[in-house]
Design a protein that fits this description.
CATH superfamily of the largest domain: Galactose-binding domain-like
CATH class of the largest domain: Mainly Beta
Helix content: under 10%
CATH topology of the largest domain: Jelly Rolls
CATH architecture of the largest domain: Sandwich
Shape: elongated
Largest sheet: 7 strands, antiparallel
Strand content: 35-45%
Number of strands: 15
Structural class: mainly beta
Number of helices: 1
Radius of gyration: 23 Å
Number of domains: 2
Order of helices and strands: EEEEEEEEHEEEEEEE
Amino acid sequence: MLNLNAGNVALKSVTHQSIDLLNSYTASNAVDGNKATNLANNSCTYITAKRNPWWRVTLQQPYKIVMVAITNRGDCCADRIDGAEIRIGNSLDNDGNHNQLVAKVYSMRAGKTQKFKFSPLDGQYVNVLLPGENRILTVCEVEVYAVSEDMVAMIQSEGINVAPNGRATQSSVNQGSTACLSLAQNAIDGNRQYDLFKGSCTQTNTESDPWWRLDLVKTYTIATVALTNRGDCCAEQLNGAVVHIGDSLESEGRANPVCVKVSFIPAGGTGKFRCDSALQGRYVTVALPGENRTLSLCEVEVFGVPTE
């Protein structure tokens, strides 16, 4: 197994935050390795109400960052962090708050740690910015995880097909004479045989918005997905399919980021698609939007490496 994490590279690093004469000393509390969430324990930052408060950690060097974890205050006021932005880059323009936006905090439970994962991004500065008037920014720990240059190269090159190690399911199984030949698991059997009647393809009922989903069991960083289309008939049925990758099961995985939208794969052909940027996720969903659609896949290959 490849472990991409270089450890928490923010631990004990140099920190800064918005000017606050009463609380300037608290910035380093977010990288002390202590996830205590009661402000009275002196392990959280605190910036009194002001416009666009921010907090920043300066890493020892630029890293290829793939995840930031934030621990929220637990003794009160959990919603104060709602709307916070995580920004990463190598610029100190506007105190680092003009660097690339990688994630937003929409909601976080009191005293909990939330992980934000994204494609490898080069940066030495990680900012937590809270836009708005009269905002109070408190974080109890900020962890930053990175990968090596070699791992980035492997992710971008292709990696290995990790799909056969997963578990597959789909919106339905064709109820006709081919039902026993159309199971979801057929798409990850390592066989690109494209004749449905040979027992190596999937097929759903004709229905609204059919889908097929792969559970990789753990999170992977994925750069490329390959789909093999049915070859004995009906090749056009796969036109318009959308591949989603992420850690959410909302809407059967269709709420996760899009890797690719398939316009056409020839009958019996294999289309290999590189995501616009490497995506992290446990679930790979192939969705076919529309009414009266039938989804059939003869092989799904997912190329990536474990994220954790």
